[in-house]
Design a protein that fits this description.
Strand content: under 5%
Radius of gyration: 23 Å
Distance between the termini: 61 Å
Largest sheet: none
Length: about 110
C-alpha cells in the first residue's frame, strides 16, 4: 500500500472518496438517497431486460446461500412474516391462499 506522503501532500483517491461520501451523508437526508436510488433504478430498467435481473438475482441468491446458514433464513422468514401480518388484513391472506390453492391444482393437473 502506498504511503500518503508518496502523493506529495495530496490526498489519495481513496481518501478523497471517503471524505466526499462523509460530506454527502452529512448534508443530505433519507429522501435524497431514495430519489437518487429511484432514478438509478429507472435508468437501469431502461437499459436492461428481464434476463439481466434474473441473472443478478440468481448470483445474489447463490452468494447469500454460501454465506448464511439455516438459522439466517429462519430469522429473516420470521421477520418477514411478522412485517406482513402487521401490514395486511384477513382478506389479503384469503386472496393469497386462494391463489396458492389454484396454482397447486394446476400443477397437479399438469403432472
Amino acid at each position: 500500500m502506498a504511503n500518503k506522503n508518496d502523493n506529495k501532500g495530496r490526498m489519495t483517491v481513496e481518501e478523497a472518496g471517503r471524505k466526499g461520501g462523509e460530506e454527502t451523508a452529512r448534508t443530505h437526508d433519507k429522501e435524497f438517497y431514495q430519489e437518487i436510488g429511484r432514478k438509478g433504478g429507472e435508468a437501469t430498467a431502461e437499459t436492461h431486460d428481464k434476463e439481466f435481473y434474473q441473472e443478478i438475482g440468481r448470483k445474489g441468491g447463490e452468494a447469500t446461500s454460501e454465506n448464511h446458514d439455516k438459522e439466517f433464513y429462519q430469522e429473516i422468514g420470521r421477520k418477514g412474516g411478522e412485517a406482513t401480518s402487521e401490514n395486511h388484513d384477513r382478506e389479503f391472506y384469503e386472496e393469497i391462499g386462494e391463489k396458492g390453492g389454484k396454482a397447486r391444482a394446476r400443477q397437479r393437473d399438469d403432472d
